[in-house]
Design a protein that fits this description.
105 residues; 0% strand
């Protein structure tokens, strides 16, 4: 049973690191604040959740409960903060960059 928990924990750890890396890459590569917020919010929420789940699987029950509460806190606050940032960007006049797509007609 211990080996199964270790395998699940390693899979969550690798998945969390992957999503955090993709979120950081999206933050660097995407053109405007709205696209960057979308990439980082989705990837960071999932990445941090998977990393904390991996830690919770490897810790005691008391620490696992605290990490579970931290996962719930991140699931609530991260999208809320992104919404506030996007709303303030929109109200200050920032408009999304619209891609024209392929113009080779």
């Amino acid at each position: 049973m211990e080996i199964l928990i270790d395998i699940i924990s390693i899979i969550c750890l690798i998945g969390g690191l992957f999503f955090l890396f993709v979120g950081a890459l999206g933050l660097l590569r995407l053109p405007d604040v709205y696209n960057r917020l979308h990439a980082t919010t989705k990837c960071d929420t999932l990445g941090a959740g998977l990393l904390l789940l991996s830690l919770a699987l490897q810790s005691s029950a008391a620490v696992g409960v605290r990490l579970g509460l931290l996962i719930i806190f991140i699931l609530i606050t991260n999208p809320t903060a992104a919404h506030v940032i996007a709303r303030s960007a929109y109200k200050t006049g920032r408009r999304p960059i619209v891609s024209r797509g392929n113009t080779d007609d």
